[in-house]
Write a structure and sequence with these properties.
The protein is of the alpha/beta class. It has a single domain, classed as TIM Barrel. The protein is built from ten helices and eight strands. Bound molecules: phosphoenolpyruvate (PEP). Belongs to the triosephosphate isomerase family.
């Protein structure tokens, strides 16, 4: 399985810059050794999906509701994401867990809804800096995995230490490898298909550190925030595979 390099644009992207970024990535991508995914804001999803159609680049949402439709003002359903061209959806990102009070139980319900709509969920887990200082990172990530994944889960896990997101701080390679091995063990124990799931690393992935991170055992790709907004940086990360 080729590594997946996923760009999480977060709440960034008006119409023209989003189109320019999507086209620059499409045109800069030559013989990529990776699968490439762009997760623009929901307002740009249909347009970006159309711009990358036929290129092999996939698109995804950054969150979804648990229901397909209904009286949920401001929410977006997984069926709507799929209708706008998405194949994937990021769920349980730490910014959603923190800013919107999303518990792992809510994330699990969203994961089930996304799978039912035919989307591939990318479920984010990760510890805070104080969890790590207290040596609690495996306990925290282990419970997030157990509680955020339905028993019939198929999809992708993204390990994103919260203290590494947007900070320029990155765990040591040994720490990333240890956590990915731990996550793999949890998946194998809890999930019938756990041995085959991709585990992405996310948190301050940049062109300068991508090759080392992507070369670590059990790192099946990267979830990239800030660097995915700059076409040449994102393309350099893809080329680092
Ligand atoms: C993210 O928020 O998913 C992320 C990894 O951000 P950054 O690459 O900016 O640390």
């Amino acid at each position: 399985m080729r590594p997946l390099i996923a760009g999480n644009w977060k709440m960034n992207g008006l119409t023209e810059p989003s189109a320019a970024l999507a086209l620059a990535i499409r045109h800069g991508l030559a013989d990529a050794g990776a699968e490439v995914l762009l997760c623009p804001p929901a307002t740009q999803l249909a347009a970006v999906s159309a711009l990358v159609e036929g290129s092999g680049i996939a698109t995804g949402g950054q969150d979804c509701h648990t229901r397909d439709s209904g009286a949920h003002t401001g929410d977006i359903s997984p069926v709507m994401l799929a209708d706008a061209g998405a194949r994937y959806v990021i769920l349980g990102h730490s910014e959603r867990r923190q800013d919107h009070g999303e518990t792992s139980a809510i994330v699990a319900a969203k994961v089930s809804a996304a799978m039912k709509a035919g989307l591939i969920p990318i479920v984010c887990v990760g510890e805070t800096e104080s969890d790590r200082s207290a040596g609690e990172q495996e306990t925290v990530v282990g419970s997030q995995i157990t509680e955020s994944l339905p028993s019939d889960f198929t999809g992708i896990i993204a390990y994103e230490p919260i203290w590494a997101i947007g900070t320029g701080k990155v765990p040591t390679s040994a720490d990333i490898a240890a956590m990915h091995a731990f996550i793999r063990g949890e998946l194998i124990r809890d999930q019938a298909e756990g041995v085959g799931f991709r585990i992405l690393y996310g948190g301050s992935v940049k062109p300068g550190n991508a090759a080392e991170i992507l070369g670590l055992p059990d790192v099946g790709g990267a979830l990239v925030g800030g660097a995915s907004l700059i076409a040449e940086d994102f393309l350099a990360i893809i080329r680092a595979v």
